[in-house]
């Protein structure tokens, strides 16, 4: 579904990156499920342009919210505010991962940035599930530890980096 | 004590001794410092309240500013939708606060904190006075 939406929007000149829980779902091989597809629009299109593109595949806006729904699908699509960032760190195009699927290419947060995203929820909101998700991703993928440490330092969580790294190693 | 704030080509007088709300003799509320940036007086007042109190719910914000609750709710929902605020429920009340993950949170709060300093002293005092400790039911105010 994500690939269908990405390619539909791309055809309309809208370049999006998958973020949030669905990234986790992909990087954990669906051990953590999500039916929310969160996309950041990198092209700064107006909401009505996105709505027009999604209408072509049956997704309609849910009231005045950012959500789009499909009558025949359990998926909901949301477009959180740009820019593409984790905390104060903006993510450039060169860091976005690409995944080839039968429906086309999905652009999404790379595993290290996805870990940052989960850890930020854990550090700010004590969401323990996000901690577990971050560990799961780290166990299954190559982590750029230097980048992750720098991010921890810049976000004001220097001690937490060591805690996380030890947890991954244990 | 009265101060004068020029508004276009006319003058409007504000009674700064009126604690809680600042209104002119025509009943218009004075505050409009960053309306040009945030888009409306209502949005400005909601944001100033949250900047002063760190969190808030629709009816208390409306009561502070003598606004319609529905207008405040509309602003809060919009700001949450757009990522500036997040909310949680306590009992039956939905409490809003600034989204710690909003990328422009520090800059936004810096602007609001500066705006707060430019409010009349009485209004600053009202906004920053935050009685959250419990009060026995029925105890006279």
What do these coordinates show?
- The complex is a heterodimer of chains A (170) and B (141).
- Chain A is of the alpha+beta class.
- Chain A has two domains: 2-109, Beta Polymerase, domain 2 (2-Layer Sandwich); 112-169.
- Chain A is 45% helix and 19% strand.
- Chain A is built from seven helices and nine strands.
- Chain A has helices at residues 2-11, 21-27, 47-55, 111-125, 128-140, 145-155, 158-169; strands spanning 16-19, 36-41, 60-61, 67-69, 76-78, 85-86, 89-90, 97-101, 104-108.
- In chain A, the strands form three sheets. Chain A has a five-stranded mixed β-sheet.
- In chain A, strand 6 (85-86) and strand 7 form a beta hairpin.
- The longest helix of chain A has 15 residues, at 111-125.
- Chain A is elongated.
- The termini of chain A are far apart.
- Chain B has 141 residues and is an alpha+beta fold.
- In chain B, helix 2 (41-53) packs across helix 5 and helix 3 (58-65) crosses helix 4.
- Mean pLDDT of chain B is 79; it is low at 1-29.
- Chain B is globular and about 45 Å long.
- Chain B starts with a strand and ends in a 13-residue tail after the last helix.
- Chain B contains six helices and five strands.
- In chain B, strand 4 (85-90) and strand 5 form a beta hairpin.
- Chain B has a domain at 33-128: Orthogonal Bundle (Arc Repressor Mutant, subunit A), CATH 1.10.10.
- In chain B, the strands form two sheets. Chain B has a three-stranded antiparallel β-sheet. In chain B, strands 1-2 form a two-stranded antiparallel sheet.
- The A-B interface holds A 64-66, 80-81, 83, 85, 87-88, 90, 120-121, 124-125 and B 77-78, 81-83, 100-103.
